């Protein structure tokens, strides 16, 4: 099926999304459900939403309808932190963060010196996102400038809302994948000027993490961030205990790991920090005050044995938090699997997350963390039409588990059991980019 995005049409099915949350306490999230609902899609946007009996009347009664009765229409998932060059090292055995970088990540990223590898991987990566129902992402490239060009070009062809950046790192990694303070600044600036604000694309200034940037590189990074306050800043923070100890050796003047970035002026609005497991109250308070966000990466945090994010504390302090797969440290492209892991982490922390909290985290919460909630993350009229069709009965077990349950119970079960088989169709900007075979 090929639908030109400029011709209006309707989608019909059970509409499920999350309301905006009042306050900062986890547990305030609410589901909005319209059992037999319809959306009108026009020019790549949702222009009407409501019960089918109300929406498909008058002039709209004659619009073509994509009828997904019995299935769920959800806002596309939003992945707030993921590495596309690590697609081919997902599920690699046996290391914690620092050894894992040396053993798997750096060699994989070195192979991106070949622009053809970057282009081929970028296309595969986006298709893998779409088959898992992810329609927006905040993506790291490699140190190579052409790695950012490759993912932006691929996303632009798909009409996708995507944030990305070239990694900056000038020490504590193999020489072949180092830049310098000057080349990192210059290449990032050129990419930013080429891509930031083009169609649905935005640029993220992307130092890998504090240990792989010299003081001089962090200083130049901050200069760029000051020059382009509406660009993103994307990096890692306080993921692993050995990493935190190393940062305190490398930056003895800093009060904490977070304080390293803060002293350079990198903790600000549109700064997105992956992990943030080892923060103290002062760190959290500072991140909340500045409007910085956290990318919660539960499958990565358990897979690499990093630790458990205190998600409720972060939210209670007022920090915006998005959900993230962190592939390849994370072990799945699926936001269902990622939500399932977030639930387990919340149980280990003693306060289980509800279906509404988990769906919010994967959609509107990620949109808020990435400062794109005015455009995506819900099914509201005027939002961009990034929508997924979820088939709760795609497998014998989920068909059996969801048939007799309430919708909220079914949604929770599917968040625990779902994967790419449950994504029937993915719409990006009102255009179908994936249909399950
Ligand atoms: Zn990461």
From TrEMBL:
Residues 73-433 form the Amidohydrolase-related domain. Binds 1 zinc ion per subunit. GO terms for cellular component: cytosol. One of its GO terms (molecular function) is zinc ion binding. Pathway: Purine metabolism; guanine degradation; xanthine from guanine: step 1/1. Its cofactor is Zn(2+). Pfam families: Amidohydro_1. The keyword Zinc applies. GO terms for biological process: guanine catabolic process. It catalyses: guanine + H2O + H(+) = xanthine + NH4(+). Keywords: Hydrolase, Metal-binding, Zinc. InterPro entries: Amidohydro-rel, Guanine_deaminase, Metal-dep_hydrolase_composite, Metal_Hydrolase, Metallo-dep_hydrolases. Its EC number is 3.5.4.3. SUPFAM superfamilies: Composite domain of metallo-dependent hydrolases (SSF51338), Metallo-dependent hydrolases (SSF51556). NCBIfam families: guan_deamin, PRK09228.1. Catalyzes the hydrolytic deamination of guanine, producing xanthine and ammonia. Belongs to the metallo-dependent hydrolases superfamily. ATZ/TRZ family. This is Guanine deaminase. The lineage of its organism: Bacteria, Pseudomonadati, Pseudomonadota, Gammaproteobacteria, Chromatiales.
